[in-house]
Batch of 3 targets.
Target 1
Amino acid sequence: MKRVRIAMIGYRFMGRVHAHAYRTVHHFFPDCPEPELALLVGRDEAALKQAAQQLGFKRWTTDWRAAVQDPQIDAVDISSTGNNHCEVALAAAAAKKHVICEKPLANTLPEAREMVLAVERAGITNMTAFNYRRVPAVSFAKRMIEEGRLGRIYHFRARYLQDWILDPQFPLVWRLQADQAGSGPHGDLNAHLIDLSRYLVGEIESVCGMKETFIHERPTVDGKARAKVSVEDAALFLARFQGGALGSFEATRFAAGRKNHLTWEINGEKGSLEFDLERLNELRFYSEEDRGTERGFRRIYVTEGQHPYVAAWWPPGHILGYEHTFTHEVLDFLRAVRDGKPVAPDFRDGLRCQAVLDAVLRSTSTGGWEHPEA
Ligand code: SOE
């Protein structure tokens, strides 16, 4: 399969960064099937036409069902609001189109279950777009953990902090409406932390959480009225992993000064690893195996050709960014489409994440510990 013709649903932030990834992947990974930006889908015809021209799509349509069934399309990229992930994925599966879907996989656990059944029954390549697994430093951390450099894991602690809705006058955009986004920073940001914890540590056995909405009403987008915020502004939870490790997770959009601040730290019997998205070319590592007089967190500069994905880009020390993680993501998706092989994280990974998200929300109602039920 020399090329993969893509229909993409959505053209805002995620649509733009996915389109950039498709445009660059073949330049730097020539073995990868060449993606063709064949068809862009959206609702607002004028904005859609402008986006199609700007992003380099050959065609555009407001009819997503026609796009998914188009015989000139091989794969569907769902980069739209969460409330239509499920219906589009079900239609893509029915049309035997391979599918990559932005996170979180769905707005509800039942939707996620339905999506997994559909894609597995259809036998199509399916991927959930948790891009942070493909930061080279994160992929390298996984390699170090698998080599036993930390030994038995005791702690996973992570936080994902933003501040873009601190102003009470910030309007009620779709991410603040449960019927479109499903939830607030819990499904948007804790989803990333849960996926990273599953990738690096393992499955979560039980959770206990809390959530809060600090500002309950905001101006509507057209500025003509005010309406209720129907999602949380912050969500925190504790977790017990199946292997016995303890976890703490924090997601908020009210951490003044924190723009897109994702950090995690893993503590094991032989040492620790720490990652900060604001310094995503680095990994901080502490090892009990260092000589006592020389122990301390040291910075691993993850820009060598031996590090995951890096050899395709620049010489050592020439750093990568946020957008490169999406290029790595679509690379592995396109290779899986070509080879007819699974790729992680797939929809079942997305479902397992959704089960943890759901268990935390149940816990905020019951006040007790809950078990994820994929
Ligand atoms: C908004 O919080 C957002 O765009 C998330 O939806 C993305 O997953 C994250 O990568 C950046 O912030």
Target 2
Amino acid sequence: MNLNIIPVKWSDEGVLMLDQRLLPTEEKWLTLKTYNDVAAGIKDMVVRGAPAIGVSAAYGIALGANSFVGTNVDDLEEEVEYIGDVLAATRPTAVNLFWAIDRMKAKFQHEKGNGRSVSELKALLIEEAKAIHDEDIESQRLIAQFGGELLNDHDTVLTHCNAGALATGGVWGTALGVIRGAVDQGKHVAVIADETRPYLQGARLTAWELMQDDIPVTLITDNMSGHVMKKGRVQAVVVGSDRIAANGDVANKIGTYMVAVLAKRHGIPFYVAAPLSTVDLNTATGDDIPIEERDIREVTHVKDIQLAPDEATVSNYAFDVTPNDLVTAIITEKGVARAPYIESLKKQFEA
Ligand code: MRU
């Protein structure tokens, strides 16, 4: 396996991001030199996927703090708070964004309490962002290991959206991490990837990513998933998540709920793979998860080609919520959680 897709990196010149808007036809890296560039990169989907957004936001804070001019720690604190607010306003659903911002701010407070100078704080924020990134990759490695054990030799797994290395700190991915984990364990696993309208993360990113690793992947349109399940072609569904509520309700890319209902109908296990940074114990149920609505042009057009009539009334929900009773198990870096999730998820935080 290739195992070297890392979509966001720290460098002395700035934050490097693989421009996912151009994949699969062009592999272009952008160098983002300000926290505003990083915020725009998240908002405009240069980088996307919950854990990748979290890692990027952490680097954005480190980058912004490092361009602060001055020696007063209180002024730097004000700047870090402000940068955190700018980054938090980019996308509402993926909780990893807010988790990473809060962790960076907590690190600042802790080290300020230790009497650190401005230059020391700047260096410590870079270190913390790198630690968030490293820990994310390690979490995906463990998810891959635990999740891989749930799959059998010669299984075909259906996945939705892109929950791969591209959507995380890199290397494994969450849902695709489970598949890579199984392959790593010597199993022959094939994938069916939903194209994932309207933004086409499945067609553009998941197919590309799996082909880099020589993992067999068949692309289908979203409305084919019921048919392939009915035909017996799918032994498991594995998806990622943008936010998991305390009760195990799962927000993920629009269309995930439909896939979960179909999986239940056909007796196919529906697994969710996500690090604990995606689990939000402060959100009681899926009803409390904010659902991003995006530009309707994503629905009415594909690139510059118009598909719908001018002035058509359009909805573009980016995510939906799968109720916990449709979820067979949630795989995190701490292991495999099963219902009742209100208890099993809490236990994982305590472990
Ligand atoms: O809108 P996106 O592309 O950021 O949405 C991403 C997803 O919904 C992924 O499935 C989810 O973040 C899990 S990523 C490991």
Target 3
Amino acid sequence: MSERIEAVRGTKDVLPADVYKWRYVERVAADTAACYGFEEVRFPTFEKTELFKRGVGDSTDVVQKEMYTFQTKGETSVTLRPEGTASVARLCIQNGLFAGLMPLKLFYSISCFRYEKPQAGRYREFHQFGVEMYGSPEPHADCETICLADRILRRMGLNDIELKINSIGCPSCRAEYNAALKSYFDSHVSELCGTCTERLQRNPMRILDCKCPSCAAVASKAPKITDYLCQECREHFGHTCDTLADLNIKYTVDPFIVRGLDYYTRTVFEFIDPRSGLTILAGGRYDGLVSQLEPKLKVPGLGFAMGLERLIMIMSDRGLSFGEHKTYDVYLAGLGERGSRLAFNLAERLRERGLGACTDLMGRSLKAQMKYADKTGALYTMVLGDSEVDSGSAELRDMRDGTVRRVDLSKVEQWF
Ligand code: ATP
Ligand code: MG
């Protein structure tokens, strides 16, 4: 016998019992972003590989090891998006959005693909809710983006997520910092993992992001970027921190947050779940990204992405609410041929009015139908037999409190 086909490792099904949680978090996030003037965009699942190489950065783990890249029949190399920022920047350039009103505020809710080792909170296909703000170099833009992230998490009921922020400077102050880092790590090269030995040549800042314990130990004593910021970057970071403090947003400055993608400049931040240690949401400023993709354009940008699997997992662990898991309104049980026909008919009339209605499709007995109604969470039930057909009225039972009302079967509009 041939083997049963199962889902690919690192991917996940979402069953009906959980889909409402997804809808809830996506709706809350989208509504909150809309309160800040962000509008939704949608874009393709795959892009030319070159976009991510140039946008995300050739030396990043994502581009080096994690991309799902394949050749199309036309021999173009394409890649399943590992994140949304590079695609949105491409979308804005291609559709002329940078010529419009600034700031430009966009959000998205997408699937992403990364070839990583699957484990708790880490998948190969996962989902992100993300925002992108373009056009403003001001520290207030950094703060508004962080406020939005903070508000989304609070609206989900998460009040104890820790915000860590840092500034990784601009290319000019980073050059000096990179040189200092390189000479520090050069003197500790025997303590670094194989990947970090390579990183030391390509991009020493990446070592600060390594999750391997011996690298983390060396990294904890490395020079700090905050000691190397140029005056402008230092002022920008100072204003950002002061404004957050004004707004009573609690944060800690963590000079070792560097983020895994090449496009970041200045402010970077992460919201971390203190219980699991997982980062739920991460982002920052990327003033160089657009010109990396389109040298004629210079548009400052910033944004964040929130991992939806991690968010839902963390909310579930804490028993937080995902709103109401609504099923359907009325189960119409049919008894006998005439009763069943009427039930079938009434169900359609209820649906026409936008209400949810179900009726028997399995040829079940009345008792079995009522059991089904109960198990599937019908809010109301109604039994329709010969006497209901003859009298033109029936009892509508509220399943939550057991109360019963007699209603006119010809006036569905008066039932609720
Ligand atoms: P990590 O350090 O955990 O690998 P990252 O720096 O690669 O995260 P980003 O690229 O900034 O993460 O993505 C933003 C968010 O997307 C993360 O904070 C996380 O919540 C989520 N995320 C990233 N990779 C995965 C994955 N493989 N599976 C599930 N969620 C993910
Ligand atoms: Mg990663």
